[in-house]
Design the sequence.
């Protein structure tokens, strides 16, 4: 199975294609790009992900809906992480709804690699620090 992974951040949308267990290609566009430009980019790249499923992680809900709709219109089965696919991390933050899917995915990935308590630092548009317990639970940041 091919997988198109999309990461929608406040500044950029990054795409990567995974096929046969390897990352095969990547491209990006500004999150602020108009829908017409995003559609043109996806059409240009459609040969890369024909017969693919897509998973979208996003901190920009409005852009998530646009991207999901565009991908579906191109015949790509598309899922939103956190809505269609739950993030398998126990979120112990005092108000779990305030934690973005990006931060939960960072916690999950770091824990899968190191298998112990840790602090995850993400240098994106914002610099975030997140704490993960020795059991892989998200404690906050």
Sequence:
């Amino acid at each position: 199975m091919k997988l198109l992974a999309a990461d929608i951040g406040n500044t950029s949308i990054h795409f990567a294609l995974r096929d046969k267990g390897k990352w095969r290609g990547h491209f990006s566009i500004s999150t602020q790009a108009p829908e017409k430009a995003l559609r043109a980019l996806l059409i240009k790249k459609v040969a890369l992900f024909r017969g693919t499923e897509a998973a979208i992680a996003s901190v920009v809900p409005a852009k998530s809906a646009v991207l999901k709709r565009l991908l579906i219109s191109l015949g790509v089965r598309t899922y939103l992480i956190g809505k269609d696919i739950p993030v398998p991390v126990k979120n112990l933050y005092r108000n779990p709804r305030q934690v973005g899917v990006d931060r939960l995915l960072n916690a999950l990935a770091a824990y899968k690699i190191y298998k112990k308590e840790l602090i995850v630092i993400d240098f994106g548009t914002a610099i975030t620090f997140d704490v993960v317990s020795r059991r892989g639970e998200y404690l906050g940041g």
